[in-house]
Structure to design on (147 residues):
């Protein structure tokens, strides 16, 4: 099932408060609904500006699942976001933005023999490269925004 396009997400202040409270009750991580947080996440490295409905910083996979459950109940779209470096507007939308970089940023395992790494979705490429370098390995590709 696909999410509705951003222009079809119309919520009044009361509905937005209910959504924020439901997310706050459901997740152990942080939920941002204040004007400053929404303003920061309304943009990425592109020229696009889309104010999110809320921003969730999940602590773990359970929080991600609970975020998705609440968003399904409220029939609102979800946007996974990295560092906000996208140049074509992929990092902003009228949706509940899920930012894994605050809490879900651990390097879980580096297996030099199999040449694989298991990481949480918010890990920073430079941190992974530094951990892999200890084993004489590196990580590709090499984007300009790796830090």
């Amino acid at each position: 099932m696909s999410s509705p396009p951003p222009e079809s997400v119309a919520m009044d202040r009361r509905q937005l408060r209910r959504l924020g409270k439901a997310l706050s009750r459901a997740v152990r991580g942080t939920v941002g609904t204040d004007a400053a947080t929404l303003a920061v996440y309304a943009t990425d490295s592109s020229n696009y500006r889309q104010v999110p409905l809320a921003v969730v910083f999940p602590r773990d996979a359970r929080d991600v699942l609970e975020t998705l459950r609440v968003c399904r109940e409220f029939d609102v779209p979800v946007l996974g976001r990295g560092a906000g470096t996208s140049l074509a507007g992929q990092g902003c939308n009228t949706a509940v933005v899920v930012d894994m970089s605050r809490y879900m940023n651990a390097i879980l395992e580096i297996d030099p023999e199999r040449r694989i790494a298991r990481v949480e979705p918010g890990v920073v490429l430079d941190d992974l490269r530094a951990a892999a370098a200890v084993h004489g390995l590196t990580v590709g590709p090499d984007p300009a925004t790796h830090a």
Remarks:
- The CA atoms of residues 109 and 118 lie 5 Å apart.
- Strands lie at 30-32, 54-57, 78-81, 96-99, 107-111, 116-119.
- The helical segments are 13-26, 35-40, 61-74, 125-133.
- The chain is about 30% helix and 15% strand.
